[in-house]
Structure formats: structure tokens, C-alpha cells
Amino acid sequence: MKKVGIIGGSGFIGSHITKQFLDNGFEVKVSTRDLSKLEKYQHLSQFKNAEHLSFSELDVTDKNRLENFVKDCEIVIHSGTPFQLDFKDAQTELFDPTIKGTENFLEVIHKTPNVKKVVIIASVAAWNTNFPLPAGGKLSSDNFNENDTPFTSEESHPYAQAKFMANQTVNKFIEKHPDLTTEIVSVSPVMVMGQSLSNREDSTSTSIQYLFKNKIAPNPFIQMFYDEDIEMAIVNVKDVASGVYKAATISGLHGENYLFSSETYPVSDVSLMLNNKQPKHTPNIIYQNQLAERQLNLSFQPVKDTLQQYNS
Prior knowledge:
Layout: E1 3-7, H1 12-23, E2 27-32, E3 53-57, H2 63-70, E4 75-78, H3 90-110, E5 117-121, H4 158-176, E6 183-189, E7 191-193, H5 204-214, H6 220-228, E8 231-236, H7 237-249, E9 257-260, E10 264-266, H8 267-274, H9 290-296, H10 303-311
Parallel strand pairs: 1-2, 1-4, 2-3, 4-5, 5-6, 6-9, 7-8
Antiparallel strand pairs: 8-10
Helix pairs in contact: 1-7, 2-3, 3-4, 5-8
């Protein structure tokens, strides 16, 4: 039985990834920052094949613990930087753990030859830190794919900037180590929505779905979405998990970074669909998904279905 380590395997996306590997017969080790906080990860024990599941306490800034976590794994999934919009200090809450955590992780992986495959959960921000607004020089109706030049701006949200920098760290590491025996692949989802597998209340993704459904704006950032009726590219959390599994189990993908996206709707339509009403606009596919469809044999569910699953 192959063993996979999933950093952040109890979060909104991570839980679906954990389930995917358990369903496919893997032994799964999930990290948690604090083993005493059972409410963060105990829902995973209800999954099928949970007898093949174990938990390990981990702080991604601690290299010794990282080494212990990955040393007996053939595959490692790094989903350990949570989607976080609210913060008090961007440096300590976003930049340091995201960038330093990525640097530590890559250094440890380089010293652990038994790890054959790494999948890093990046973000659409690795391509465009302005998301959901268009990249500089583009219109909201312009397509974006993996051949476009990544765009970043110091005016973008610090979370997005941190994810962009972390992805650049991965790219530079791959360039610097052409003789790597570990295959590293990244995936970059747009706004991830759908059904949560837990009752955790600390998920930004599920919180945003709740806000959009009820048209609540707790801060000016969210109010901007309603005021400008921003175009939102959305992907189903189940499709992200499926894509991560395929990226982890298909060989020959080293260095790729796949955009994961389904359709794009204005936020007004997202609110309607979250309330089981029909959208007023025809969707577009702004962030292109053909590379993932072709190389990972991945299909993406319609946004209507995704938002219905949130309500189920």
C-alpha cells in the first residue's frame, strides 16, 4: 500500500483530497497544527477506509517536523497554506508562513529521495494576483491560460502576493535543481466552491459562499464584489481533489502548473444560483482549463451543479 502525506489534509480542499486517496486504496497521513484540537480533523475518521488514516502534528516552518512527516511517504501533497483574507499583520500571518514554509518544504523534499512525487496546491494568484479582477492589460472578458505571462501587483491582496511569491520560489527551485529525482507539479484553482465535508467554521471558501448567498459584506473588499458585480471564475472542490489525485499519480508532469477552472459568472448570478434561482447571464470560461483536461483527463462540473452542492 502506497503512502501519501497530505499537509493541510483536513481543510476545505484538503478533506476532499484525503477522501480521494483513501477511496483509491492509499495509506494516508494528514498533518494538523495541533493534535489536541480534534474538531479540526475528526471528521476525516468517518471516511471510508479510515483505518488507513493517521494524523501528525506539523508546523510547516519547522524543518525537523517536516522531515519526520515526509520521510516515509512516496507522495506528498502540500495544501498547507490556508485561503485567508482577514489578517492583522500580513508579514507574520501570510508572507512568512507561505513563502518560508514553501522554502522549508522544498529543502526537506530535496533531502528525502524516497518522495517520488509532490503536488503543491498553489492558487490562481500564482498567475494573476489581481484575481478575480483581470490581470494588468486585460479586460474581464479576456481569456487567460498557462501560456500567459503571470501578473502581480503590490496593490493586490497580500494573500495573493504571498501565493505568487511562493510559486516563484517553486519555479526557481526546479530550475536550480535539474537533476531532481522527485517530480514536482503545481495546481492553481480559481475560486473553489462546493460542499464542505466538515462542520468547521474557519473555512474562507464556505464563508464566502455564505456571504454571496445572503449578500452580506463584512468589509469593503467583499462589498466591492457586489458594487462592481465582479466576474467570478469558479471550480468545484471535488474537481480540485480529483485533479490533485491525477497530478499525483500520472508520471511525466514535472514542472507543470495547471489552472483549474470551470465557468465564470458575475457575482449577482452566483448569489442567484446559491439561492436555487436561475442565472441571468450566459457563462464564459475566462480561465482556460484545456491543459488540465488534456494532460490530467480532468473534467469540470458546471458552476450551477457546484453551487447546488453547497446547499445540499
